[in-house]
Amino acid sequence: MANLEVEIVAADHFVWSGAATLVKGFTSEGEIGILPGHTPMLAVLAPGLLEIAPVDGSRFLVEVDGGFFSVDSNRVVIVADNAQLKDSATSGAGIR
């Protein structure tokens, strides 16, 4: 089964990157869930919480203040104005 390669960055710092099975968040059009194989898209990210389900470890939340959300070829890139991990992300993920 394919996974998503996820990268989350804020305007002034790296937040998280790693393999995940699900990314959920809010765009200007409403809530969205991304699974492997999702159609390519680019959307405006609304302020709120992202939920990430990493391949290894427990789901965690990232609080974002808006930005952009892009999906292409099982790669999800989130560029947020500001972003902060809400829960401890687990091993197997790159956290700085």
UniProtKB/TrEMBL annotation:
It comes from the Bacteria. Keywords: ATP synthesis, Cell membrane, CF(1), Hydrogen ion transport, Ion transport, Membrane, Transport. Residues 4-83 form the ATP synthase F1 complex delta/epsilon subunit N-terminal domain. The keyword Signal does not apply. SUPFAM superfamilies: Epsilon subunit of F1F0-ATP synthase N-terminal domain. GO terms for molecular function: ATP binding; proton-transporting ATP synthase activity, rotational mechanism. It is found in: Cell membrane. GO terms for cellular component: plasma membrane; proton-transporting ATP synthase complex. InterPro entries: ATP_synth_F1_dsu/esu, ATP_synth_F1_dsu/esu_N, ATPsynth_dsu/esu_N. It is a peripheral membrane protein. It holds the Pfam family ATP-synt_DE_N. PANTHER family: ATP SYNTHASE DELTA/EPSILON CHAIN, ATP SYNTHASE EPSILON CHAIN, CHLOROPLASTIC. HAMAP family: ATP_synth_epsil_bac. Produces ATP from ADP in the presence of a proton gradient across the membrane. Belongs to the ATPase epsilon chain family. F-type ATPases have 2 components, CF(1) - the catalytic core - and CF(0) - the membrane proton channel. CF(1) has five subunits: alpha(3), beta(3), gamma(1), delta(1), epsilon(1). CF(0) has three main subunits: a, b and c. This is ATP synthase epsilon chain. It comes from Arthrobacter psychrochitiniphilus.
